[in-house]
Design a protein that fits this description.
- The structure is a homotetramer of 193-residue chains.
- Chain A is an all-alpha fold and 193 residues long.
- The first copy, chain A, has one domain: Tetracycline Repressor, domain 2 (Orthogonal Bundle).
- Helix content of chain A is 76%, strand content 0%.
- The first copy, chain A, has nine helices and no strands.
- The longest helix of chain A has 28 residues.
- Chain A is elongated.
- Chains in contact: A-B, C-D.
- At the A-B interface, helix 7, helix 8 and helix 9 of A face helix 7, helix 8 and helix 9 of B.
- The structure holds a DNA duplex (21 and 21 nucleotides).
Chain lengths: 193, 193, 193, 193
DNA sequence: CATGAATGAGCGTTCATTCAT
DNA sequence: GATGAATGAACGCTCATTCAT
């Protein structure tokens, strides 16, 4: 399996750094190769083309979110607790890795429609897990049972996304983690029964 | 004033159409010129460069939002009422003009970091009016007086933005206006006192 | 009409020179542009892509052959006379322009299958005129009336082509024009009644 | 001797197949290696470089022609008979092996000038045997004793070559062998005493 | 002998912007 | 003011060849 080889990860990590430091449109394949310490051509032994690198970056990093969210769903107690932890985890991961935050919140969105659609389908898995928490909470009476799940999910994700994007756009000037309790409160308030 | 001349508006409108129909990366200056019925060179009599066209598009269209929001603030009764109307108005404008919705929610976000920062500063005026509604509501006791205004604003705007973007990405498959009361409820719930 | 503008001809002529001097695979667009005294991008105002340049070279030059052959058919007396003159003309044109001879006999044949098929369809017009001479001669009793026209044409063209190609491959070491009467004799002998 | 080892022949045969099926420019070394069932690097144990493979293909296949032509010269009766048999043999070999026909008549000609010059020198041996038949016939009075041998050879070879190439380019749509008597007649007519 | 992962030079094409008319 | 022909910098990808194992 290609993705288990060390160079695969090397290139993915290099791509995140190059994109974060240079911006999406200035992240040439040759720059990524150089950063990864391999020849340009080597990139193409592991990735079909440039788009494939970018999708893979998103895939690999999103997998971390999905995995931890699955863990939260399995081990969390109430739905409120799960949702709170999911928010906390989302903020934690991106607060810890500013390169990743820049790439996912700003740079990767500059990709064209096609790539964005592909990225969205990767995101879907994460959002479906979120839906699951919301539905469980509605059934258990923790969340408003009459609300529209899609809208609720968009509110949760939209709030998280806007909050983190603003933080990145403001050059990480304030402490992101500090916002977590307030974000949790806002969101839980919005959907509570 | 250049922006009062007929060709200025012609070019702005042409840009929206061309971007909506071709996507951001296929919206060449020559296409915009053709759509506007002017020569390529003429564009540069009205705009400094391509980026200037795009910012101006956002500026001009955002002005509509700002104006109507000012009107709402002046004529609305309670803060809840104002916020509800602001949400309704935002959805209405974009539901009515799908070209504009595509351009603002999808295409213009593919611009580079610099352009997006400039767009954000255009957006700021709108967000400041939103802040004003929120602060008024906190002072009047309609909204939770202990909440973080910035976060509240990000929740409001993030929810609206995510909702409309999803609608555009799903090819306008469902009725956007129908969502308004539910969005209002979710948001007001989140920030209520 | 693009092909009437001076730069069109400039680029065509530059392409012949560059291909003749550097070989087909070393005839980069930038070299052709430089030789033509225009910018790289200017090429693309007159030609769709590199292949289009090469087909156009063949088209334009082939037109000269076709035109003079039409003239020969109109003004020649007997079919033998017409065929003789056609051979003479073919040799004359290429003996006079060694760049063109190199390009048509050696370099353009290195193009890929697709391009060669397109070149062949340009050649077809010329070969149809040749067929006409042959058929007329068969009907008038000058040429063997029982022969296969396609084969006869292939013999005529194959002989001419091989003769000239050999001359080019041998670096124009001998006088091509001197061969004309002998080639005429060989060919006319082959197909005479 | 490398050329006696089984892998040498394997690679040569693989090259013919790969070139015939994919075209000259799509016949990568790695494809040939795969077809031959060896690793890419192994190719370079038997051939200096890619060009060497192609020349060797031509060499090996041409050897078949030369050998049969030598046989014809030894066992044929008159010069006319030998020339007729040579034509028949040439058509037979290529009509029987369409892969080889495609490779020699179309694909190998896309190689660059240098390679083609080398191929030509391989061809020389064959053409010298042809010259020998022609000279013998001129001396014996069967062929026109005043003709130019080089031209006669070019006529013979040019006709054969053009005939077979046309057949290949027309996707083998008609029966090549059927043409043989007519080609023989045309050629013999052209050079007869 | 045989392998196959790694290398890195090379090029057609686009398009924002200019400027002579 | 208006035109549109001309400019030229910039980059993803392929593939013949090498060499450590």
């Amino acid at each position: 399996m290609k993705r288990d080889k060390p160079k695969y990860k090397q290139i993915i990590d290099a791509a995140v750094i190059v994109i974060a430091e240079n911006g999406y449109h200035q992240a040439q394949v040759s720059k990524i190769a150089k950063q990864a310490g391999v020849a340009d051509g080597t990139i193409y032994l592991y990735f079909k083309n440039k788009e494939d690198i970018l999708i893979s970056v998103f895939n690999e990093k999103m997998a971390v979110f999905v995995e931890s969210l699955q863990d939260i769903i399995e081990n969390g107690s109430t739905s409120k607790d799960k949702l709170s932890r999911m928010i906390e985890n989302h903020f934690n991961v991106l607060a810890t890795d500013r390169y990743l935050a820049t790439v996912t919140q700003l740079e990767l969105r500059q990709s064209n429609r096609d790539l964005r659609l592909k990225i969205n389908s990767v995101l879907r898995e994460y959002l479906q897990l979120l839906d699951q928490i919301l539905i469980d909470g509605m059934l258990s009476g923790e969340f408003n049972p009459t609300m529209d799940v899609r809208l609720a999910r968009q509110m949760v994700f939209g709030t998280i996304d806007e909050t983190i994007t603003s933080w990145v756009m403001n050059d990480y000037r304030y402490d992101l983690i500090e916002q977590v309790p307030k974000v949790q409160a806002l969101i839980l308030n919005g959907i509570k029964a």
